[in-house]
Amino acid sequence: MKRFLLPLGLFGLLVVVLAVGIQRAPEKSVIRSALLGKPAPQFVLPVLGREGVFDSSSLRGRWYLLNVWGTWCAECRAEHEMLLEIRRSGVVPVVGLNWKDQDAAATDWLQELGDPYEVVALDREGRTAIDWGVYGAPETFLVDPMGTVIHKHVGPLNPEIWQRDFLSRLPAPRPAGAS
Amino acid sequence: MIPEIGHFALILCLLVSVLQAFFGIAGPALGRDRWLAVVGPAVTAQFVMVSAAMGVLIYAFVQNDFSVEYVAQNSNSALPVFYRVSALWGAHEGSLVLWSWILASWTLAVALLSRQLPARFAARVLGVLGIVSVGFLLFTLATSNPFLRLSPAAPDGRDLNPLLQDPALAIHPPMLYAGYVGFAVAFAFACAAMLEGRLDQAWARWTRPWTTVAWAFLSVGIALGSWWAYYELGWGGYWFWDPVENASFMPWLVGTALIHSLAVTEKRGLFKSWTLLLAILAFSLSLLGTFLVRSGVLVSVHSFAADPARGTFILAFLVIMIGGALTLYAWRAPLLKSNAGFELTSRESFLLFNNILLMVATATVFAGTMAPLISDALGLGTLSVGPQYFNPVFLLPTLPLVALAAVGIHASWKKGRIGERRGPLLLALAIAVLLTLAVVLGAYEGARVLTPIGIGLGIWLALSALIDPIARLRRGIRITPAIFGMALAHLGVGVFVLSIAVVESYTRERDVALAVGESARVGEFEYRFLDLDPLEGPNYDGVKGTIAVFENGKQIALLHPEKREYWVQRSVMTEAGIDMQLTRDVFGALGEDLGAGRWSVRAQVRPLISFVWLAAFLMALGGVIAACDRRYRVALPSPEAAPVTPVAAALPASARSAAAGDVLPGSAG
User: Fold this and answer.
1) Long-range contacts, stretch B107-110, CB < 8 angstroms, 24+ apart
2) What is residue B146's predicted lDDT score, i.e. its pLDDT?
3) Interface contact flag, B311 A25, Cβ < 8 Å
4) Among B121, B294, B400, B590, which is 20 to 30 Å from B554 by CA?
């Protein structure tokens, strides 16, 4: 009799493993960044669409998102609408880090799909992305006014992730009485 | 309006499946035979409803209805019509609709062809299939509805992933699902037998053809996927031990074991509880594969959009279906006794070893696939398991398996006699050894330790499979489809082993940088880059290269590799140029544009590689032929149960004609 229970027992173990796997599945999109809680890496890079350079220290004193993207990245297209939404909401400025891309392609992309970025820094050789520990585009970092990395998201943003992982971490300037 | 009709049809389909499950299970359990009359019409209605839902979705794709979110995300007005239809299963939601439709088709086929089955038993089989259907329809409607609207409608769609715009990949998912879902039939037969508390040889005879056909579909599905990876991804390989590939391979291995253990159960009444367990396992692994692919638990190159909510749902479904079946097994299997004995070298023993080795092989694949997950669950960090593990470990059980098969197919039942077959078998072995020596010592270099073993075993098994049909031909004894199918399938296995051994040992490959007019040596071959032209397709543009390949100064192939850029998703795709010759594939793919007119070119010459897939099709064809054997269709009076009115008689005539005139939607493009 006992040996006939063995498959059921093994299956039970498997279910436990799978259940734990599901619990942790969302974390996989939040590959733990060594940067969390640490100062955001500084960079000085050329800017898309105008002369001059962009110095990240100019961001001190306010919250911002750093969004790593490229026109070669299909998933970036998927999250573009969400970025435009964020821009429209005006909750937090989005700084684009255009990663290993062609300037002309990036300009076309923003003209075609709309521009959600306050400024787009051009990381043509991917050095800055290495400093930030970027695995692959798209990735989005939330940085606080002290210049500390508060959160990192790997993969495209969507309203649910935005609500859960980003808005909840931002100070809420929502009008009183709304809820 | 029309998409809502599809949505509504899917909901009705769910309700009808609930009826089918309830009356199919409860009727026999409570002894209410009049309830059984509901089951047949419910099966028909379910098929009609899910066909309607799928038809509506196909219509939305063909008509470019971008107000349907799923269509907007997976199609585009520039997409050719054929791919608009196959885009239906290009992503998660539509795949589930296809899954449900295939399940409904299998269920209908079981209902129509089960006239010889006792009515209560047939009702139970259909009831279990009804439960499976309820689970999948509920999953579709609750977490993955393909009929959701987009407001306002998208002006144009995001296009089907260009990787999926390929004929082989258009039919790969339906084949694969037909295999997965086919194992649901074997699973339902097993559950019905356990519910009845009775499992006789007639049961094994009923179950065999269904299992074999499902296995054949799965074989074709896996082979098509592998072929696609070979020429579309441009990597040049045919198997990568990717979690998703493994997820389809494990049910195949268990299904192979099941086919063989069913033979023993049918012929000798042995291995009963083991056969039941295999039938449960084959479908469980199919479900587990679905779970792994769709829950985001494992990260893979072809993971679908991962969603933990979906994962939780499938896990609950797994617990109910597999947990339920295994509980039933623990309760009922001990009652099944078989008392017959057999000798060590009888066919029974060979098939026992076959089963053990196949299960060990499955276990190695399972361990490698699950190891990253387990390590992660225990907090041991991220682990990745690749070919360095799979290739050697998988060979440990499978090489002895091939040798056993060469001998075992000639063993007789019960008694350990190879007898008159010993002579031909030794002759086949001698031929295999000679041919192997000729190849290994011959013109080629590149042989490794495993090369002669793989080539020798492959040739031996292929020849051994032919001994029986040849002997019958010479003596004028009829070759039944069962015998012919079995010989063909084993010949396929032999050819498979042989061709893999040759490909792995004698492939010439090199990545070279070439400009137009230059040439490079790859082993004994010379690749000459002749030309590069612009290219324009229906929904892409790009460049097309012309590469001539020479062997000893003689041109053996002219290749036209392409680099395509699809407009909508702006993704760049590699179309390898492959000249498929009988004995070898000459392969060239354009890699990166290195600037200044130079391109990296992936040059490979792979001997016998088409035989890898040809062998898989031989196996599948053998399975289909064997399943068509007349003896499965002759009503065999079950010794214990007298056939009562068959359930299928309750089906209206319209259902039968619907099934007969039905065409797989993928073929209508």
Assistant:
1) B107/B20, B107/B43, B107/B46, B107/B47, B107/B133, B108/B43, B108/B44, B108/B47, B108/B655, B108/B659, B109/B659, B110/B185, B110/B188, B110/B210
2) 93
3) yes
4) B590
CB contact, 8 Å: A11 with chain B? yes
Q: Are residues A5 and A91 in the same domain?
A: no
β-strands B554-559, B540-551 pairing: antiparallel
In terms of domains, do A66 and A79 share one? yes
Q: pTM value?
A: 0.79
Helix (H, G, I), strand (E, B) or coil at B54: helix
Q: Are strands B584-595 and B598-607 parallel, antiparallel or unpaired?
A: antiparallel
Among B298, B319, B330, the residue with its CB nearest the CB of A15 is B319
Q: Are residues A39 and A12 in the same domain?
A: no
Indicate the domain borders of chain B: 1-160, 418-506, 508-609
Residue of B nearest to A156 (CA): B305
Rounded distance, CA B184 to CA A135, Å?
Answer: 40
Give the pair of three-digit tokens for residue B411. Answer: 């063993």
- Domain with A55, as residue range(s), is 31-167
Highest mean pLDDT among A62-71, A122-131, B290-299, B639-648: A62-71
Contact: A8, B373; criterion CB under 8 Å: no
Q: How much is the mean pLDDT over chain B?
A: 86
Q: Domain check: are A151 and A111 in the same one? A: yes
Q: How confident is the model at residue B646 (pLDDT cuts 50, 70, 90)?
A: very low
User: How many domains does chain A fold into?
Assistant: 2
Give the integer Cα–Cα distance in Å for B560 and B576. Answer: 8
Compute the distance between CA of residue B189 and CA of residue B622 in angstroms, rounded to an integer. Answer: 23
Chain B residue with the nearest C-alpha to that of A11: B323
CB B385 within 8 A of CB B368: yes
* Residue B235 pLDDT grade (very low, low, confident, very high; cuts 50, 70, 90): low
